[in-house]
Design goal:
The complex is a heterodimer of chains A (287) and B (109).
Chain A lengths: L3 H14 L1 H18 L5 H9 L2 H11 L13 H8 L1 H17 L5 H24 L4 H10 L2 H9 L1 H13 L5 H8 L4 H12 L3 H9 L10 H17 L15 H5 L6 H20 L3
Helix pairs in contact in A: 1-12, 2-3, 2-6, 3-5, 4-5, 6-8, 7-8, 7-14, 7-16, 8-13, 9-10, 9-12, 10-11, 12-13, 13-14
Chain B lengths: L1 E4 L13 E2 L5 E3 L7 H9 L4 E4 L10 H18 L7 H21 L1
Antiparallel strand pairs in B: 1-4, 2-3
The chains are: A mainly alpha (287), B alpha+beta (109).
Chain lengths: 287, 109
């Protein structure tokens, strides 16, 4: 096994080489900026989408899918944008770009981890929309990226990661941080943080990536870190997708009141997460 | 949530996603119960497809069927929650997850 320093160096080197990842994160940033300006313009959004031929094809394919059941064909990105609606467009966009940029090798596990991330994004958004609606889109992105470290380890240290997976398959009821330390030598939160910083992602997202298994250590953005952490556990309980542990973790007592979650709320939130997740998968299967 | 063309709107259907005009402004907010007034609005703006809420509660599940599904679901979920099911909040999360899984299994049928 490589030493922690060797691993950190390997990652540092690959940050420079990951120009495609950087490209996608800049597209996401540009898109988010256009979306959050007070008067969002179809023209602007369409221009950003049209810069990327793959994305253009996907947006058109989605708009023309049976999901929308239109009789006329949608031929232009502009028409597709107005049809899909901004809110769903932003999510589809983020999800699309994310899945494209991370899953170079399509494996069953990669796909499951990706579904897990998507479910956590949906759940985190659901939780945050109750306390800070203005931050709910950020919570979605943070949820989507919370395990980015695992994707990076998967790509950069495939042998170690496969050993970890073998152990997971033998006994899925172990904590993921323990498996990381044993088989990788560094945990996925640290790896993810390194990348997130070099990409210049917003600080709340960096904190989510770094502390979603150790909420007590987060100094800032405790609300969003706590929301993603709770989301992560709900999603593990619901078995939406799969990560590298099937265990629900204990959540510090202060968290529940901090994110204004009552015991009864689970009965409302969980079916909603399930419905949204099903709708997303139905949607994404088209692409 | 499912997509339907507006000629398929039935009484009591609930809009599940905001309907926007081409400028991105909200025409009809999600959550409203669709009636003639809203159908007129949709027609006026040439909107042909909308998202409506699914019918999760529409079929009855008998007590026996429910109990059988609970039996099927609980052991697996107990494994997942084994480390912290004694925590009152996590316990409630567990119960809600079991109920949801029962619904999902029921809907698969």
């Amino acid at each position: 096994m490589k030493s922690k320093n060797e691993i950190l160096n390997l990652i540092q080197q690959n940050i420079q080489n990951s120009s495609d990842l950087l490209y996608y994160s800049s597209v996401i940033t540009e898109f988010n900026r256009a979306m959050s300006s007070p008067d969002v313009q179809i023209e602007k959004l369409s221009n950003i989408i049209e810069k990327d031929p793959g994305l253009t094809a996907n947006v058109l394919r989605m708009a023309n899918s049976s999901y929308y059941g239109l009789s006329k064909r949608v031929m232009t990105v502009k028409h597709a944008v107005s049809l899909l609606g901004y809110v769903s467009l932003e999510k589809i966009f983020t999800v699309n770009v994310f899945s494209k940029s991370i899953s170079k090798q399509r494996t069953a596990h990669g796909e499951n981890l990706w579904k897990h991330s998507l479910a956590v994004a949906i759940a985190a958004q659901q939780i945050v929309s109750n306390i800070k609606p203005e931050m709910s889109e950020l919570a979605f992105t943070a949820g989507l990226l919370h395990d980015i470290g695992k994707f990076l380890i998967m790509n950069l240290l495939p042998d170690s990661y496969n050993n970890l997976l073998k152990e997971f398959n033998k006994n899925p009821y172990q904590y993921s941080i323990g498996l990381d330390n044993k088989f990788i030598g560094i945990d996925h939160q640290q790896v993810g943080e390194l990348f997130a910083k070099s990409w210049d992602l917003p600080q709340p997202i960096i904190n989510v990536i770094r502390y979603h298994h150790n909420i007590d250590f987060a100094k800032d953005n405790k609300d969003i870190v706590a929301a993603v952490s709770v989301a992560n556990n709900i999603v593990k309980g619901m078995e939406l997708g799969q990560s590298t542990s099937m265990l629900v973790e204990l959540i510090p007592k202060w968290v529940w009141s901090y994110i204004s979650l009552n015991k009864e709320d689970f009965y409302k939130i969980i079916p909603l997460i399930q419905q949204k997740y099903n709708a997303y998968l139905a949607f994404l299967n088209i692409v | 949530m499912k997509a339907i063309t507006i000629d398929k709107i039935e009484d009591g259907m609930v809009l599940a996603q905001d309907v926007l005009n081409p400028k991105g402004q909200i025409l009809i907010k999600s959550g409203v119960t669709l009636d003639d007034y809203y159908i007129n609005v949709l027609n006026k703006f040439n909107i042909d497809v909308i998202m409506v809420a699914g019918d999760r509660e529409s079929r009855e599940m008998s007590r026996e069927e429910r109990a059988a599904l609970m039996m099927q679901v609980r052991p697996g979920k107990k494994m997942i929650f084994q480390k912290c099911i004694t925590d009152p909040f996590i316990y409630e999360m567990y119960e809600a997850v079991v109920q949801n899984s029962v619904w999902e299994k029921w809907n698969e049928k």
